[in-house]
Structures are given as C-alpha cells and as structure tokens.
Design goal:
Number of domains: 1
Oligomer: single chain
CATH class: Mainly Alpha
Number of helices: 16
CATH architecture: Up-down Bundle
Strand content: under 5%
Number of strands: 0
Shape: globular
Order of helices and strands: HHHHHHHHHHHHHHHH
Largest sheet: none
C-alpha cells in the first residue's frame, strides 16, 4: 500500500490531484445539465447536437496551439488562466438558464468559449503529471489521479442527476462554474521544475513540426489516435447525445444520472485493478478493453432496463480505465518531457476531430434511420475500431521500460 500512495508524498502532485478532482466534480454535472437545458428549451436532438458540437469544434481548432503554449509556458499558469475563462463562461450560461433568458445562440457561443479554454488546459494538465513525481512513480501517479477524478465523477454525476430532477439544469451549470474558480486556486500552488528544451524554436509551426515528428516516429501512437477518432465519435453520438434522448423517452432522467455514475464507479474499480495487477503489455490489454464500449448502446437498444444499463455502464467504465492508465503511462515513458504536451495535443486533435461531426450528424441520422439503427451503428464502430488497433504489431508489442527519455 505504501508504494501505491507514494505519489501523495509530493506536494505538487497533491495540489494537482486536488485541482483535477475539483474540476471533474463540477464537470460531471455539466454535460447532463447542458443536455437537459437544451432539450427543455427546444426538444430538438439537432439543437443539442449543434450546442455540443460548438464546444467540440473550438476545442479541436485550438488544441494544437494549446499544446505549444503548454510546452512553452509554465503549465500551472496555463491551467490557472484556463480555469478563469471557464469559470466566466459557465457562470454566464448558468445565469441565463436560471433567469430564463437563454437561447440556442447563447448556448452555442458559450459552449464554444468553454471548448477553447479546455483546449489549453487538457495538454497542460496531462503533461504536468510526469513533472510532479519521479519516473518510477508514474504508473501509480496516473492510476491514483484517475482514481480520484473518477471518484469525483461518481459524486458529480449523481448530484447532477438529482439537481436536475429536483431543481433545474441551471444549478448544475452554476456549481460547475464554482469548481473552476476553486481549481484555479489549487493549480496556482503546483510548483514543478521546468523541462529542458535545447532545440526549441521560436516559431509555432516549427514547434508543431517537432511534435508531429514524435507522433509519426511511433506507430502505436498514430494507430491509436486514428482508432480513437472513430471510438470517440461513436461514444459521443451514441451515449452523450442519444443517451439523454433515450432517457427522456424510456427510463428517465434520474436513471441516466445513475448510469453515468455507474460508469465512473467502474473506472474507479478499474484504477484499483491497474494498481494491483501488473501486466507486461499494458497498452495491448487496455486497447482490447475498448471493445467493451459497445455494450451500452447495445443494451439501450436490446434491453434498456435500469439495472442492466447500470451494470453494463460499470463494466464499460472498467474498460475505459484500463486503456486510460495504459495510454497515459506509455506516452510518458516514451515521449520526451519537453515535447509531451504537443504529442498530447496531436492525440487530442486526432481523437476529437470527428466528435463535432458526430454530434452534428447524429440528429439527422437518427431521424432518417431511427434511434435504434443509430445506436447499433455506434456499437459496430466500437468493435471495428478496436480490431483495427489490435491488428498493429506495434500496439501489441510496446512495453514500458525503466529507461525513460526526459
């Protein structure tokens, strides 16, 4: 147990953990609150797709720039600035929803601002982990961080479901805004040594080229990025957009909050498994678990009973965590620290680029072919993407060794 919790001995890691747990608690409420706020206003799947696509699109557009900034500037300062912008955008949309002054254009604009802010925080936050602990503790640090954030997700999703059921979606958005303010304070206390970057160029394009070289130099990196282009599109379209629609028509909003909470409970259990069970080819096992992502859309179609949805979501969460910890740790082992944020930004752009397209298309597709066909299509995409990634010998053979480039 001492080895498991060893990263907590490092103050910078503790502040980072506190900040991430805080933002995740609020953000667990935000997608549920936003989805039902838009549906309450418009009752339109297409409108909901436009709103969530606005956030995803600006996120993708600014991610590469966010990676460069996170490799150039102190990463904790980037995170403080991002939290400030996110607080302002979420507080404004919460106020508009609570006062009944909101409209679809407001939803779109403020979602876009939040997506832009997130584009700077995501690479900075992901790459900061390896600076807060010694190399030998990276697996434990990633697993503990995800254990903490996933635990926060359980409480946030459950509280979000209850707030929406008994008050209004605006209160979920308001709490999310407050968590950004508090997290900004925590991020300000994260103090880590700078990373060496002897070959850093002043040109943004030159720095992006260096990051791209790191991506294409490792086949397993770009294969997984391409695979998750499809996985994330299917996950967002099938779960985050059609899930609330199915909840309204079938099993209820309260149940949907519990389903999302069960997924994060599964992620907590998955993190515990990672800490206790050591495997030689961790990334291969994690990728194989991605096939389980198909379970939730299949159950929503075939047998949408609340208990089965909750159990399936829990199992899916365990699979998500096996991949997540493996991916974070493997990148940190094989990519130099001063280029890591840029590699993360390319990973996020490639993984997220199809999300706004899926969010925009899922409404028209479900209207044309039916929600059942759309959900089945999402399940098939998950299975094919998993098979495509596992076909690559580099994905099956990569291992994390003690010699790490820093």
């Amino acid at each position: 147990m001492g080895e498991t919790f060893a990263p907590l001995a490092h103050p910078a890691y503790r502040w980072l953990l506190a900040a991430r747990v805080t933002t995740v608690t609020g953000n667990a409420m935000a997608p549920i609150a936003l989805a039902f706020a838009v549906l309450d206003l418009t009752s339109s799947i297409t409108s909901l797709g436009l709103v969530v696509a606005a956030r995803s699109l600006t996120n993708v557009v600014f991610l590469l720039w966010g990676g460069v900034v996170a490799d150039r500037l102190p990463r904790h300062i980037v995170l403080v600035g991002s939290c400030a912008v996110s607080f302002a955008s979420q507080a404004l949309i919460a106020g508009l929803v609570l006062t009944g002054s909101v409209s679809v254009p407001w939803f779109i604009v403020l979602s876009a601002v939040n997506g832009m802010s997130s584009a700077f925080s995501m690479p900075a936050s992901a790459s900061l982990v390896s600076q807060t602990v010694p190399v030998s503790m990276r697996l434990q640090a990633n697993a503990l961080l995800r254990l903490g954030t996933n635990s926060a997700n359980i409480g946030g999703a459950s509280l979000g479901g209850l707030l929406i059921a008994f008050t209004s979606p605006g209160w979920g958005l308001a709490v999310d805004a407050l968590t950004f303010a508090l997290a900004g304070v925590f991020f300000a206390f994260v103090r880590v040594p700078g990373v060496a970057a002897a070959d850093r160029k002043p040109s943004v394009l030159a720095e992006l080229k260096v990051g791209w070289t790191e991506v294409v130099a490792r086949q397993w990196v770009w294969v997984i990025i391409v695979g998750f282009t499809f996985v994330n599109a299917a996950l967002v379209g099938g779960v985050m957009v059609l899930g609330p629609v199915m909840a309204d028509s079938t099993f209820g909003r309260e149940t949907w909050g519990l389903v999302l909470a069960a997924q994060t409970a599964g992620m907590v259990a998955g993190a515990v498994v990672v800490l206790r069970v050591k495997v030689r080819r961790q990334l291969m096992v994690g990728v194989a678990c991605v096939a389980g992502f198909a379970g939730l859309p299949l159950v929503m179609v075939l047998h949408p009973e609340p208990w089965l949805l909750i159990v399936t979501s829990f199992v899916c969460g365990m699979g998500i965590e096996q991949f997540g910890v493996a991916w974070e740790t493997t990148l940190q082992h094989h990519v130099p620290a001063d280029r890591l944020a840029r590699v993360y930004s390319y990973d996020m752009v490639g993984s997220f680029v199809a999300i706004p397209l899926a969010q925009l298309a899922i409404g028209p597709v479900s209207h044309a072919f039916g929600i059942t066909a759309a959900l089945l299509g999402c399940a098939v995409v998950h299975l094919l993407a998993t098979a495509g990634m596992l076909i690559s010998p580099s994905v099956r053979s990569v291992e994390n060794v003690d010699t790490v480039r820093v």
